[in-house]
Structure prediction request, 648 residues.
Amino acid sequence: MSNAVGPASYADPPFPKEEGLGEREALGVASLVAENVTFAYAGKPVLQEVSLELRRAEWLALLGPNGSGKSTLLRVMAGLLSPQGGRVVLEGKPLAKVSSWLRGRTLTFVPQNGPYPEELTVEEVVRLGRTPHLGLLGREGRADQEAVVWAMEQTQVLEFRSRLLSTLSGGERARVMLARSLAAKPKYLLLDEPTAHLDLHHQAEFLCLLSGLRSQGIGVLTVMHDPNLALQADRVAFLAAGRTVAQGQPRGAITQELLSQVYGPMVRVRQVDGQPIVILGTNSGSQVRAPLSPGARGSAP
Amino acid sequence: MINAERQPLPTRYASRALVFLGLVGLLGLALVLGVGQGAVYVSPGAVVRALTGAEPDPIVSDLRLPRVLGAMGVGAALGLAGAAFQGLFRNPLADPYLMGSASGAAFGVTLAVSLAGTLGASYSTSQIFAALPSYVTLFAFAGAVLAVAVTLLLSGGAARTHDLILAGVVVGAVLTGLTTYLMLKDADRIRAVMAYTLGNFSFMGWDGVRAIALYLALSLPFLWILGRTLNALSLGEETARSLGLPLGGLKLLVIGLATLLTAASVAYAGIIGFVGLVAPHALRRLVGGDYRALLPASALGGAVLLTFADLLARVLTRPAELPVGVVTTLLGGPFFLYLLWRGRRNV
Prediction:
């Protein structure tokens, strides 16, 4: 299967003056690239020759059905799993050759369901995000404190900074974990289903946060399920059975044809006020409910 | 914001300082009371005068002080090792003996007694303990360290926590079986070996105090530095690695330091249950989950707990003496039940 890979080099996007992000890498392209990545768990292939490029100052949404390899790809790109084939390249340098501290400062990763440190306060958790800057022996300085406060402001957790994590709701915890990842002032942010625990209000806040981060030159890769949220992204990529099946602008990529192919026939794309929205079809309309698979046909009334 | 009206907690640093002050105060109290109690009662005033050198007392300086300081040192070592293992395994029920060190030490001691019995048949067990404390200690220490090394070997390093716990259980079970076999072969020595493995400070002398103090002085600064790693581990191993921490080596370092502490305490005082479990667990409620506060607090708490337990062991059945491990187990058991009960209520 051919992968829709972008051109090898991009003109650098115009970054605004960055604060605390460190000097721009002198070499190469400002991007985090998975090149023909192949990964298998205990012989079972999960990713097969997947290529994906996350550029700075963009939001790339990674979609696909359960088990399609999205989270695995995210972990490979975060340097937490080593691919059996292919490689990940961070700004022109193979990620495997980047020191773990530099990797931790440059790209941060937030899993979908962490273990949550129940007995730490919000601020203590966010301060852990500075670990890659401090190493084992470093003492926190003013820059660290400022980054921590900035991260808590961005995610609106500042007002409960001294509460224990055990007292927070799922959505509040998700924002604390996001703050923890921002505190490192990364260039790339890799998020596994960041909106899973957020109510609509905080989903909207999350979208605002993302556009703010993009304007600061941060590249954001989100694994997500909701195509309507993904329509707000700069680019989307679809994974199915360990391969990329589509990549590109959301309006162009999220089509009826693709969604039916990936998720089955009950997913519909409709136009509302000139905007595409994705809904689940019901059998109450004129269309007869289509069976999920040929084998299920016999059970249809 | 929706949650803006919720009350923030008061800053925890002030309360943390209070907890530390309270622990130091309790430790001082335990020292004075512990030194005073025994076959000859020494009043608190006389204890303080003897300790400050104003009025030297050989009972205090030669007999009581090493025993009380030994109890403090062993308690601190167990509290520290327990906190380190709880952080490493992300499990508040982990204790210092989780990786097989206790069974290793018990096996070492039994082997030492058994070998001594074979070499010089005229020695009674109490003579072996009395004449060769460093020989017994060496076997206990080596047994504990070897057991943990075998556990690490079986689990293929410290990378997989579940493998580590499983290997620890297996090593512990096998060594306990071997120990029982040796003890049954030397049935007349069972009593003395039992007394040793149940925890006992009557073998503690100044050499033991110095050794424990050395291990504490070596481990505490390193473990404190590793506190941030333990904090990061509470976010999960994956996230901790994504923060840049070289976890494989750091986890081995934590295991190595905690094992040295456990091995030293088992070697000089036998197996003393629950202190390493209870001290960090109770203090977690008071100082929070930041290991840079919890580790020193657990050391202090373990010292306080074990000094009072040793005091009880000497006072409860006077003039006879209970093994201190029996006291800590009798106190720790109900506490464990309380944890279970509270955990169930919170679900």
The mean pLDDT of chain B is 85. The CA atoms of residues 225 and 292 of chain B lie 8 Å apart. The radius of gyration of chain B is 21 Å.
